[in-house]
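Next comes this protein:
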Amino acid sequence: MLLFGLGGLGSLIYVSILLVNAIAILSEDRFLARIGWSAQSFEPTFGSGGVGGSGADGTSVKAKMVNLITSVRTLMRIPLIAINTLVIAYEIVLG
């Protein structure tokens, strides 16, 4: 069973794993804060609900992206270790 050798499906799996790895290793202090994408810059304050936002719930697209990056970094840390280990083992065994 050559899962990663199926052409389009294998490439899609590799690309998705690489993108999640790229998001997971972004350093909030070293990189995201320098470009203004830190989670602290988008914390809601009292009385700011819905003013000036572009989304349906009043948050901007940039704030949603920061929230997505923070969520991926938090939730996918342990599963990514297991997924990366499986991919490395697959590549070593089946090349």
User: Anything to note?
Assistant: The two ends are 13 Å apart (CA to CA). DSSP finds four helices and no strands in the chain. The CA atoms of residues 26 and 32 lie 7 Å apart. The helical segments are 8-24, 28-32, 61-75, 77-94.
